Amino acid sequence: LILKIEKMHLIEIHAPDFDLEKTLHSGQVFHWEKVGAGFVGTIGDVPVYVEQKNATLLIEVAAASSRCFGEHGQDAHATIAHYFALDHPLAKICASFPNDPVMNAARDFCSGLRIIRQPKWECLASFITSSMKQVAHIRQMSRALRQRFGSPKKLGQRIVHAFPPAARIASSSESELRTCALGYRAKNLLKTAQLVASGEADLEAWSRLSTLELGASLRQLPGVGPKVANCVMLFAYERLEAFPIDVWIERVLRERYRKRRISVAKLRVFAKNHFGEHGGYAQQYLFHHARTAPRPPGLERRQFVRGTAVR
DNA sequence: CTCCAGGGATGAT
DNA sequence: ATCATCCATGGA
């Protein structure tokens, strides 16, 4: 391990059927940064270093913050295992996927990818900023927000910034948010932060709503439409059936599932029927595969050489 | 340089 | 209900 600093707690967690790298780089969470052989990030407000060695997670947390995990009577081990959703029955989930060539290829490519349990506000805020942005830039905006507004935490010699709470964003201004390169998204993030901070939007209480009601509540927030609502339900509310349709998934459905000329509304109906109770997992596998896997010859995305489009 | 991105709100058919 | 347009920004 690379953080050879005094007063660190070392934790080992048995994590079979788990791929840390795929999980953190699949576009569901945006703040983990590669450091040495592992990743540095926060779980809630607690800074964490995590590295995978075969079926074991090697964790380092500052001794001073290890008791911060105790709020809900859990120790650090249980909190981290819960965050990475090591209790999800991944084999059963994958077995519930439809048996078609596109899904099978994605399932093979994404083995060990888990949908983690993110803090609700952090997830909601991140996806409000995600509109018409590439994953790399969402990560950049997340970093800017955390560095400007988040509280700094020590992890060894390193400083890690927690994601700013809604109240902190709410007390900023649109122009201040725009300095984090949010563009037109700043207004939506500010207004939603104010609703959450005031308690008018009670993200924790919404856990008890049905998926239908939860989606409707989320979509009332500025900057939250069907796609973002589904992402938040999937990544922060454990609604594993939620099926976000972004430009990548829409492309997969239209090109690979032969749904060329039907409305987005009917795409949603098809997805719900075809991918089943763990549709959100299937969706994440299709997304990561489409974005990351090498493409067969002739199907590459266009590349540009000296300003000239080539195939 | 051009292209495009984990979209949403708004207003016109 | 479906469609067009605008909204900012910067990585690739």
- Across the major sheet, the strand order is 1-5-4-3-2
> What is the alpha-carbon Rg in Å?
20 Å
**Assembly state of the chains shown:** single chain
Low-confidence stretches: 302-311
Q: Tell how many strands the DSSP assignment holds.
A: 9
Q: How much helix is in the residues?
A: 40-55%
Number of continuous helical runs: 15
Provide the structure class. alpha+beta
Distance between the termini: 43 Å
Q: What is the arithmetic mean of pLDDT?
A: 92
The 3D shape can be described as globular
The fraction of residues in strands falls at 5-15%
| Main sheet summary | 5 strands, antiparallel
Listing every helix as H and every strand as E from the N terminus to the C terminus, the arrangement reads EHEEEEHHHHHHEEHHHHHHHHEE
Q: Any overview of this molecule?
A:
The chain is an alpha+beta fold and 311 residues long. The protein has 15 helices and nine strands. It has helices at residues 20-24, 63-66, 76-83, 90-95, 101-109, 120-128, 135-149, 166-170, 174-178, 185-198, 211-219, 226-236, 247-256, 264-275, 279-292; strands at 8-14, 33-35, 38-43, 46-53, 56-62, 152-155, 158-161, 303-305, 308-310. The strands form three sheets. The chain has a five-stranded antiparallel beta sheet with strand order 1-5-4-3-2. Strands 6-7 form a two-stranded antiparallel ribbon. A two-stranded antiparallel sheet has the order 8-9. Helix 5 packs across helix 15. The longest helix has 15 residues, at 135-149. It is globular and about 55 Å long. It starts with 7 loop residues before the first strand and ends with a strand. The relative contact order is 0.13.
